[in-house]
């Protein structure tokens, strides 16, 4: 049989198969390469976005202390002296410094590369580049600055309520610098969005505590504060988007500086031992409501607290209950255990993971917290220590960016409406006061009255008389006063008169025939010089007399003149020495008498002195009607505060027992060693002997409304950055 001949070349079918398979493999390779390339691009973009997010988080955390420091320095003397002093405090420089300090321009710094022998390495991270504040940060809308201040405009419910400010200069400054000032107040823009009437409480109001882990107050609850805020946008990769081809939306943030007057049951800028006396015995008759704060605290066994917050450290002893959670001693370690806080031996509320477990279990933040636990938040006590008591410690600052100077803001004695200063003494060896200067407010102006304790306003007049008119003139005295009529050492007197008094011969007789005479009056002064024992000169203060005294002087009433500082003017008189702290028996003292009924001080009363303070009588025992709309319960007493380096209860005699209600605090400052700890319930009597523990009853509670805030308080700042998500508008965003 003849075989069939082939029409095509041998191997043709094999070539087609090979070619087909080859093309198929090539297409698969191309598809795989394309997929891998896309995956690499996606992964690179994801990595780059993550890199940007990490860097932005570091930048945000760096802004918190930088903004707070700039706000402080803007209030200090010389901050507005020249461009060199102003420039570092601007928002532009704050943001630029935050970028640098957070190392946001490079993944690995050159020092680290050198340390591992990679100094010549080339970093291929496209996210590493020089970043400028102008291309990274921006404000909102038509604002051409770096941050939009929350002032003088209603930004709607998407933003916190704005503060009112009248000065156009300050408005412009607040766009360039973080301005903190008493001139920024709550007004019509915040009406209905804060918890109390803005007409009655413009300086501090009721606002929600931010949702942060640092628990000075409970997250979301109303507390007394003022919120200064600035909004800005940030996009760290914006200027590199042409190179990276990565489009990122702007992240929006609100930076808030809350001005928080001390309002907790215990507020101690010191190392405070809470729960035990200095002799080691546990507290007796002590009822504490609400939270406590201390820069550093040692919480002793057996005490129960609702909330504890600290700044530099908390030591919690065994058998302590905090927020209803019982802590018990762990015999196998130095730690503490609790079924609610940890659930395992040897752990504490600060052990990693314990806080997170508590939050998941309870749906709330742990009632034990340190300000260092909140990366986007910082709590800063504004503490001048001993200078807080001393009106002469500060200075009249000039060239400040903020209209409120740092000394006026932080020295309590400089904030008082009234002052009594010892301005002259007998000699360099005799410290007996011979001259006092009394300052008070009258129609918004500070008036001064110099009282020569050796002689009166004119020759022959006793000390304390004040000239009021010439002959034939009539003066109205709303309260009883002593009056004198005459000239050149010849005077006739009438005592305890009130109403209209015409100074003429028909009423007094003629003490100096043929000479034009003058009228004088002597009010019932609210102070006098007295001696404690036989040698210690003291200023005795009578707060109940101020209403009458101020009326006789034609001054503003106790609702304005509601605070007083008492100091010795050692700066302007070389014979007057600066009072010692701790106080000594050779220093002057201040004695409080006639202080039981302070009902005339409807807005409260405060005393600040750098002298030892003796409380000789019952203090603030007459209730008044609570302010309308405050919701405060009766009995309500005028809110009062007393600041002194040392307090003694009693004067000539020691009291049998002592009962204290309100709040306790300390300005001891940097005391951190165990032998420098502060024991707030260790009270001393006039004789400097310790009060017996069972004779002291203490009932402490927080301030819950601005109506209960005394005229002078300690101040704190809470600095918080929140990302502007919808929940942030209602104050429910969580800052890590």
Automatic annotation (TrEMBL):
Top-level taxonomic group: Bacteria
Provide the transmembrane region boundaries.
12-33
Q: Which UniProt keywords apply?
A: Membrane, Transmembrane, Transmembrane helix
**Is the keyword Membrane in the record?**
yes
Q: What is this protein called?
A: Type 4 fimbrial biogenesis protein PilX N-terminal domain-containing protein
């Amino acid at each position: 049989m003849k075989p069939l001949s082939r029409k095509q070349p041998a191997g043709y079918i094999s070539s087609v198969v090979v070619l087909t398979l080859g093309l198929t493999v090539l297409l698969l390779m191309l598809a795989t390469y394309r997929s891998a390339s896309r995956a690499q691009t996606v992964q690179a973009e994801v990595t780059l976005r993550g890199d940007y997010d990490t860097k932005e988080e570091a930048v945000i955390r760096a802004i918190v202390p930088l903004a707070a420091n700039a706000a402080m320095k803007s209030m200090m003397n010389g901050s507005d002296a020249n461009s060199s002093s102003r420039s570092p405090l601007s928002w532009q420089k704050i943001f630029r410094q935050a970028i640098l300090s957070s190392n946001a321009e490079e993944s690995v710094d050159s020092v680290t590369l050198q340390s591992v022998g990679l100094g010549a390495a080339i970093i291929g991270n496209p996210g590493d580049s020089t970043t400028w504040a102008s291309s990274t940060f921006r404000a909102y809308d038509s604002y051409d600055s770096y941050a939009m201040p929350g002032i003088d405009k209603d930004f709607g419910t998407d933003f916190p309520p704005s503060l009112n400010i009248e000065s156009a200069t300050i408005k412009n400054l607040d766009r360039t610098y973080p301005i903190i000032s008493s001139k920024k107040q709550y007004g019509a823009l915040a009406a209905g969005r804060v918890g109390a009437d803005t007409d009655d409480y413009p300086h501090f109001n009721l606002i929600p505590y931010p949702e942060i882990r640092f628990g000075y107050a409970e997250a979301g609850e109303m507390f007394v504060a003022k919120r200064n805020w600035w909004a800005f946008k940030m996009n760290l990769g914006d200027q590199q988007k042409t190179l990276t081809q990565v489009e990122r939306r702007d992240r929006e943030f609100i930076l808030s500086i809350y001005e928080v007057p001390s309002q907790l049951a215990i507020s101690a800028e010191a190392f405070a031992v809470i729960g035990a006396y200095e002799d080691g015995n546990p507290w007796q008759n002590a009822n504490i409501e609400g939270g406590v704060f201390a820069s550093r605290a040692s919480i002793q066994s057996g005490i129960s607290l609702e909330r504890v917050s600290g700044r530099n450290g908390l030591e919690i002893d065994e058998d302590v209950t905090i927020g209803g959670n019982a802590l018990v001693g762990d015999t196998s370690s130095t730690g503490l255990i609790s079924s609610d806080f940890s659930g395992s031996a040897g752990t504490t509320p600060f052990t990693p993971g314990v806080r997170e477990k508590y939050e998941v279990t309870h749906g709330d933040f742990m009632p034990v917290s340190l300000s260092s636990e909140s990366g986007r938040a910082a709590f800063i006590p504004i503490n001048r220590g001993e200078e807080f008591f001393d009106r002469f410690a500060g200075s009249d600052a000039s060239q400040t960016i903020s209209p409120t100077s740092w000394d006026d803001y932080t020295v309590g004695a400089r904030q008082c409406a009234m002052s009594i200063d010892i301005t002259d003494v007998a000699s360099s060896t005799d410290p007996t006061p011979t001259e006092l200067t009394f300052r008070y407010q009258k129609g918004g102006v500070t008036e001064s009255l110099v009282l020569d304790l050796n002689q009166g306003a004119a020759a022959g007049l006793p000390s304390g008389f004040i000239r009021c008119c010439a002959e034939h003139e009539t003066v109205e005295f709303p309260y009883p006063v002593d009056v004198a009529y005459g000239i050149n050492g010849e005077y006739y007197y009438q005592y305890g008169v009130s109403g209209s008094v015409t100074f003429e011969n028909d009423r007094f007789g003629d003490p100096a025939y043929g000479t034009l005479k003058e009228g004088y009056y002597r009010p019932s002064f609210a102070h006098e010089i007295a001696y404690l024992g036989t040698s210690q000169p003291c200023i005795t203060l009578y707060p109940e007399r101020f209403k009458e005294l101020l009326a006789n002087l034609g001054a503003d009433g106790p609702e304005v003149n509601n605070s007083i500082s008492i100091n010795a003017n050692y700066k302007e008189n070389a014979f007057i020495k600066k009072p010692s702290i701790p106080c000594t028996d050779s220093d002057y003292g201040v004695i409080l008498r006639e202080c039981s009924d302070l009902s005339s001080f409807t807005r409260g009363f405060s005393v600040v002195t750098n002298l030892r303070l003796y409380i000789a009588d019952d203090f603030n025992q007459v209730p008044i009607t609570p302010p309308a709309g405050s919701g405060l319960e009766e009995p309500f007493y005028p809110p009062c505060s007393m600041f002194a380096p040392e307090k003694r209860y009693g004067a000539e005699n020691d009291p049998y027992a002592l009962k204290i209600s309100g709040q306790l605090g300390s300005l001891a400052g940097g005391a951190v060693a165990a032998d420098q700890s502060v024991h707030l319930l260790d009270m001393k009597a006039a004789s400097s002997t310790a009060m017996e523990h069972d004779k002291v009853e203490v009932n402490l509670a927080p301030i819950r409304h601005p109506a209960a805030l005394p005229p002078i308080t300690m101040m704190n700042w809470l600095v918080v950055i929140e990302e502007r998500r919808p929940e942030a508008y209602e104050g429910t965003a969580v800052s890590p």
